[in-house]
Amino acid sequence: MVMKYYNIPIFVPHEGCPFDCAFCNQRRITGADTNVTADKVRSIITEYLGTIPKGERVIEAAFFGGSFTGISAEKQEDLLKAAYEFVKKGTLDGIRLSTRPDYISTEILNRLKKYGVTTIELGVQSMDNEVLLASGRGHTKDAVISAVSQIKNYPFKLGLQMMLGLPSDSKEKSIQTALEIIALKPDFVRIYPTLVLKDTYLEKMYKSGEYIPWSVEETVEVLKNIIPMFRKENIEIIRIALAVTEEISPGGALVAGPFHPAIGELAEGEIYFDKICKIIENDKSAEVFAVNEREISKALGNGKRNIERIREKYKKEIKIKPSKSLEKGEIEAWKE
User: Fold this and answer.
1) 150 contacts 109 by C-beta, under 8 angstroms
2) Which of 62, 147, 189, 230 would staple 104 via disulfide (CB 3.0–4.6 Å)?
3) Which domains are assigned to the chain?
4) Cα distances (Å, whole numbers) of residue 180 to 124, 125, 145
């Protein structure tokens, strides 16, 4: 039986964070703006546990939306204790949280370990100091390196988040950030293209012409470069782009930027297109391409555009077929 993983989201929007990063409006992103209490944590966890199917499963409470370790030590303990009650009873397998790199210390990490935290996600965003400064992050990449070094002294799983297209960013800088994140050896990463949201400083920068967001095409170009880099090092990419909600969509809080409901799929399609082209360049007779049966839509590309692009580029027809034996990302090709 396949193990299923569930997160119970508990949003603490902007709590613990005195910074106003140019891109950030957690209330818009999470759709939550209420003050979270220990009783609220118990209520949320109890409610969610009643909706999760029985079976082989791992369930974690997930404190997201703010910089959890920037909250007062007293409130951290109150919220963690409430979740830890469920860990001790065996109804939760752990607790995960997100925070800033400059809000990590031995004292904080000891507290997190004491109350059953299993996973820490750091909002790295960029490893370029110029980008961090332009984005109002309030720290340099040294804070990231220091935080990761401290966390690795503990048994936590470590996730690192990066953003594409921040102020002063470029394709080269984002690829370099990916390389430096890989060197830090996280267990997993999240990749977020930068969107301009209402009521953020980035919106002011955009409207004044100081900031030009990346296009979907520019973002996909970078994604298709960095996705294979993480996979080569066995670093799982657990999410690409913010979840689409009423707020994070046209007509909501979205002002500008590379919004696409399946931008990760677009990038995967480009990765497959490049692989198919490389095979054809080496073997002009290749006409049938087999891929993992779960990756057919990626190999075909958005709207089956890869078939059309191959037709235009090489003046030939190809077929893409499912395979039960191939691993994800693998391709076998032959002449029909």
Assistant:
1) yes
2) 147
3) 4-261 (3.20.20.70), 268-334 (no CATH)
4) 11, 12, 10
